[in-house]
From TrEMBL:
It comes from Oharaeibacter diazotrophicus. Pathway: Glycan metabolism; bacterial cellulose biosynthesis. Pfam families: BcsB (PF03170). InterPro entries: Cell_synthase_bac. This is Cyclic di-GMP-binding protein.
């Protein structure tokens, strides 16, 4: 433990657990003062505006105070609801403390008027209303808090937002749920605490909102009831892929300019209704066929036309690739949310980089509950080689209170996998600065990673579960915004196949400069819409808009770097085999059968237990003797050695479960430097609906391995690649070659061991030869 490395931080750490008045809620994000011991609760039936209540000198009685004055909730006459967008954090706040941040774009006129934030909330019955609050902040300023729990499970609440709290452009709406259990003060009880936000009725309500009429207003487009952005590509007659290519690429640019993370693209001749935007793109004949006068629109000059119902249409007259590129440049001038609002920090891996919690919008935070948890998303380069040639260092500035359970600890998870623990072993408590916690680099993956820090903070007083202590509990944990992750320089070379590092990162192959080639197995509106949604989602995932090549699928001999999309019957069995899947049986959408159990499958799939049991039987040894253990170890090394030199058995075909709604599969053809990817479903309608769902932020970030499945419950299952190959993504300097070699050896320990053994033998032989020549004889 090192103290006083920085005097202000050390003083704050030391003062945290000194004798002090009790706190009712100690999370206080962005450095705000802890909340009063008992905030005035809201009327459980009539939503209300809540102001922070004054602190009370002693734990209050459990009877609720009088409700605050009621305020309007749903939009009134002349008011418009701007829904909040879908984000990777989802719409549910779980546990004793959880936070979701939404980006909200407002123009200068909207800021001057101000408005209200309206939330539709549903809370678990186990939440104690006297000790649970929903805290709302806008741009770091607390604008209100709402009591959670109580009578009705569902209700609407409204908080007035003054113009002074808003900024022209991007705003951060941060919602933090602080929840305590009514009767269970154990760690297990914290998993019963949740509050759900209803995206259909949640958003910013303001008067005098006008429809989007210019390109600079694209981030303010109306969203649907799930926080997604519907984009309708209007196209009449037969759907020609070459003619559609510019419109689909412009739809990707439109999704990026609107800063959505959940685009939903459809194709139809008639205009759309409700939320979203229509897109009319093509030559003069295309515009005229859809009822637009081509003479009103300049070539390559996109314009927005607003219909009588208020739904905007983006009209782009583009009859050549140059005009299409000019229109895309114009559309792409809109800005994206800052990293602190987007909640993702992106690294280039070129040198050692340090990321503080403040870079994620976090500041000093105190906590008085039993289980603190917070997630952070870090995006590594898609060609990063992650293996045990280095480590990510968590440098912790934190403290914990005295008299906690000896088994309490801080745990660090990477993509759901436990990678490190720090025990809270001192009964007198502890404050630390710059405590180093090593996280294995092999636990990370190219592309997006989710790191979760979790602190277990059980105390003897929890056995009594005194409600007064629940309301006025002293802080048990403190973490400072100066806590940071230090990421070393990364080896750069793609390792394929990997859906997360390619499709999930907005590219079809290893190199970002290569175009995204999409081969359509069908020309129906559902398949074309699914392909357009997939491209739009890839477009918002990468650093830049990828070029698009849209072609019909002629046969299974497609170029490497191609994404094939279509219903199973349209794709054909050859394409399934080429991407490592068993072809579906005749007359069925998918082949019935239990899938194989692979590295990243976290449980039995489709209700079949045999693969999981077989995998465990292979790990359990029946013999306990030294010879049995030695034989097993030699067999493991021999198998690893065969796989490393390419003499192992090739991976078998993967049988898609019959209950799967969508499959993404990827294979790297022999001698190719880019994979072939298949996206398929039982039928076109299911394909379109499933691609819409997998494009949502919380599912898209789960793409990984050589196969990803969307099951009937909406869950995502990833299957790791059994064989991968390195593919160069750029010039190789000496330092990068050294890092790549170290990564390869760390992943192939059998060869590494053989090389060490061989080097030892050669050293021994050289020593023997030298001694023999020198004439020294050993007696």
């Amino acid at each position: 433990m090192r103290l006083a490395a920085h005097l202000p931080a050390a003083a704050l750490l030391a003062a945290t657990f000194a004798a002090a008045p009790a706190f009712a809620d100690t999370t206080a994000p962005f450095g705000a003062a802890p909340f009063a011991a008992e905030p005035a609760p809201l009327d459980p039936v009539v939503p209300a505006v809540v102001q922070p209540a004054p602190a009370l000198p002693a734990p209050p009685a459990l009877a609720p105070a009088a409700p605050a004055p009621a305020a309007p909730t749903s939009p009134g006459v002349g008011e418009t609801l701007r829904r909040l967008p879908a984000v990777a954090d989802g719409w549910t706040l779980s546990g004793e403390v959880d936070t979701v941040v939404w980006p909200l774009y407002l123009d200068g006129a909207a800021v001057a008027r101000g408005g209200r934030l309206v939330f539709g909330i549903e809370t678990a019955v186990s939440v104690m209303p006297e000790a649970s609050t929903l805290v709302v902040q806008v741009n770091g300023r607390t604008v209100g808090q709402v009591a959670l729990g109580g009578g009705d499970a569902r209700r609407l609440v409204s908080l007035p937002i003054p113009p002074a709290a808003l900024s022209a452009g991007w705003n951060a709406v941060r919602v933090t749920a602080n929840q305590r259990h009514r009767v269970d003060c154990s760690v297990d009880g914290t998993y019963e605490l949740w509050t759900r936000i209803d995206p259909a009725v949640t958003g910013f309500v303001a008067e005098g909102v006008r429809p989007v009429a210019g390109l600079d207003g694209l981030p303010a487009l109306a969203l649907d009831e799930d926080g997604r952005l519907p984009i309708r590509i209007r196209r009449g007659g037969a759907l020609d892929t070459r003619a559609l290519e510019p419109a689909v690429e412009i739809a990707g640019a439109l999704a990026r300019a609107a800063a959505t993370r959940a685009p939903v693209v459809t194709v139809a001749a008639e205009p759309g209704t409700g939320a979203g935007i229509d897109l009319v793109a093509g030559d003069a004949d295309t515009l005229a066929g859809l009822g637009f006068d081509p003479g009103r629109f300049g070539a390559g000059d996109p314009r927005i036309v607003v219909a009588t119902d208020g739904r905007p249409t983006l009209v782009v007259r583009a009859g050549s690739p140059d005009e299409t590129a000019q229109a895309i440049r114009r559309i792409s001038e809109a800005s994206s949310p800052p990293a602190a609002i987007d909640r993702v920090v992106r690294l280039d891996g070129a040198s050692e980089q340090s990321i503080t919690l403040a870079d994620f919008g976090e500041r000093n935070e105190q906590f008085s509950g039993r289980l603190w948890s917070r997630s952070y998303r870090i995006a590594l380069p898609t060609d990063a080689v992650t293996a045990d040639y280095g480590s990510v260092m968590l440098r912790l500035d934190a403290g914990y209170a005295p008299d906690l359970d000896p088994d309490d600890e801080l745990s660090v998870f990477v993509d759901g996998r436990l990678v490190a623990t720090v025990p809270f072993g001192k009964g007198s408590g502890e404050v630390t600065q710059d405590r180093r916690v090593e996280l294995p680099l092999s636990a990370f993956r190219p592309g997006l990673n989710t790191l979760r820090i979790e602190a277990r903070l059980v105390a003897p007083e929890d056995v009594d579960c005194d409600p007064h202590r629940q309301i006025a509990g002293n802080p048990r944990f403190l973490i400072l915004g100066s806590t940071r992750f230090v990421v070393p320089r990364l080896a750069r070379m793609a390792r394929l196949p990997d859906l997360g590092a390619t499709v999930g990162a907005g590219r079809a192959g290893a190199r970002a400069e290569e175009p995204v080639r999409i081969a359509l197995a069908g020309a129906d509106p559902a398949t074309v819409g699914a392909a357009a949604t997939l491209y739009a989602r890839m477009a918002v995932s990468g650093a830049d808009l990828p070029d698009l090549e849209l072609r019909p699928l002629r046969d299974a001999n497609v170029r490497p770097g191609t994404v094939v999309i279509g219903a199973a019957g349209d794709v054909g069995p050859a394409m399934f085999r080429q991407t490592g899947l068993e072809p579906p049986a005749e007359g069925h959408g998918w082949r019935t059968g239990a899938p194989r159990s692979d590295t990243l499958v976290t449980g039995a799939v489709n209700g079949e237990d045999a693969p999981l049991l077989d995998a465990w039987r292979s790990r359990v040894r029946t013999g306990d003797g030294y010879l049995d253990r030695l034989t097993a170890k030699v067999a493991d090394y021999a198998r690893a050695l065969r796989d490393a030199v390419g003499l192992g058995e090739p991976p078998g075909a993967y049988a898609v479960p019959e209950t799967a709604r969508l499959v993404l599969a990827q294979a790297l053809p022999e001698g190719a430097d880019a994979p072939v990817t298949l996206v398929s479903a039982p039928d076109p309608a299911t394909l379109a609906a499933a691609v819409d769902r997998i494009a949502e932020p919380d599912r898209w970030s789960g793409l990984a391995g050589r196969v990803s499945l969307l099951d009937s419950t909406g869950g995502l299952v990833a299957v790791a690649a059994e064989e991968t190959r390195f593919v160069s993504t750029g010039p190789m300097d000496v330092a990068n070659v050294r890092l790549v070699a170290s990564a390869w050896l760390s992943a192939n320990t059998a060869i590494y061991g053989m090389l060490l053994l061989g080097a030892g033998c050669m050293f021994g032989l050289a020593t023997f030869a030298k001694v023999k020549r020198s004439g020294v004889r050993l007696k």
